[in-house]
Amino acid sequence: MHNEFKHKSPGMIFGQLAKYTSHMYKNLITEEKTMWIMCATQDKACHNAQIPAYILLPGHDTHRNLLENHLPCKCNTGREDNVGHTCNT
After folding, report:
1. Does 89 have pLDDT greater than 50?
2. What whole-number distance in Å separates Cα of residue 4 and Cα of residue 13?
3. In three state form, how does the secondary structure of the chain look?
4. Theoretical Cys-Cys bridge with 73: which of 31, 52, 66, 85, CB 3.0 to 4.6 Å?
5. Do residues 87 and 75 touch, judged by C-beta distance below 8 A?
6. How far apart are CA 25 and CA 58, in angstroms?
7. Where are the alpha helices (DSSP H) in 51-76?
8. 38-85, pLDDT tens digit by residue?
9. Do the Cβ atoms of 18 and 2 come closer than 8 Å?
10. Per-residue confidence band for 14, with pLDDT thresholds at 50, 70 and 90
11. Could you give the angle at the alpha carbon of 74 between the alpha carbons of 73 and 75, nearest 5°?
């Protein structure tokens, strides 16, 4: 779909593309819109089925951000990794 829009309007920037596709979606006939809604519902069900198998990276939250207590220590302890080290300074 992206390549089709890009070919039709090569100079279109992201904001313009969003407005264009939004306008197209609003003007779909009910049968076409129902098809897209059914597709989205199936994708969401598939995604939700995969969630229980998701394994977090050690030391990271659900958004893959490094947790505070796993940040590298800023002191010079001689340890190579310094991960999880708590400073007494």
Report:
1. no
2. 14
3. CHHHHHHHCCCCCHHHHHHHHHHHHHCCCHHHHHHHHHHHHHHHHHHHHHHHHCCCCCCECCCCCECHHHCECCCCCCCCCCECCCCCC
4. 85
5. yes
6. 41
7. none
8. 999 999 999 989 887 777 778 888 777 887 766 666 665 555 555 555
9. no
10. confident
11. 95
